[in-house]
Write a structure and sequence with these properties.
The protein is an alpha/beta fold and 186 residues long. It has helices at residues 9-22, 24-34, 51-56, 70-79, 81-86, 121-131, 153-159, and strands spanning 42-45, 63-67, 89-93, 106-112, 132-142, 163-170, 173-179. The longest helix has 14 residues, at 9-22.
Length: 186
């Protein structure tokens, strides 16, 4: 947990460097699946070392990331210094189950290899649902090394209020996609 789940100290910093390499391809695929437009407001939950924030900043100028780890925030801040300075990327220290944003803020959201270490995945997904705009899409992507099982992901997303859930696979990675309903999306 100190290396990957809740990175802290020297092991956490090392874990961040490893995550930067091992999660990049899966994260890029998840970003492609979200079909991000230039005007989309995008949230990344559990951004780790910030590799995907850098990729997202090439697609839109409205990116917000949350991560509970000080070490990951420091790595992401260094990796995305220019985009942060321009105001296109904002970083917050927060857990998935307590997102510091108003309801209906984001068009798209993603979490790559992070949900499996959240203390309460359904609470985190409910928070993501709360901050998503009606019609918004969420992507939960996992590599084969994540320890996350494919089975049950659609049910977790449905328990959090999402609809139209599906799981897609590429090589040994998989991604659960879902949408927040446009009707009755309080």
């Amino acid at each position: 947990m100190r290396m990957f789940g809740r990175p802290r100290g020297l092991l956490g910093r090392l874990g961040g460097h490893i995550m930067a390499r091992t999660n990049e391809n899966c994260g890029a695929w998840a970003i492609d699946l979200l079909e991000i437009r230039p005007d989309d407001r995008v949230l990344e939950v559990g951004f780790g070392p910030g590799v995907l924030l850098a990729r997202l900043s090439a697609l839109t100028t409205h990116i917000v990331g949350v991560d509970p780890s000080r070490e990951m925030i420091a790595q992401a801040r260094a990796r995305n210094a220019n985009a942060i300075e321009r105001g296109g990327v904002a970083l917050h220290r927060a857990p998935a189950h307590s997102l510091p944003f108003k309801a209906h803020t984001f068009d798209k959201a993603l979490a790559v290899n992070s949900m499996q270490v959240w203390p309460d995945p359904v609470a985190g997904l409910r928070e993501m649902h709360r901050v998503m705009k009606p019609g918004g899409t969420v992507a939960l992507a996992f590599t084969r090394h994540s320890g996350q099982r494919k089975g049950g992901l659609p049910e977790l997303l449905a328990a959090a209020g999402f609809q139209y859930t599906r799981v897609v696979e590429k090589d040994q990675d998989f991604c659960a996609l879902a949408t927040k309903s446009r009707v009755g999306a309080a």
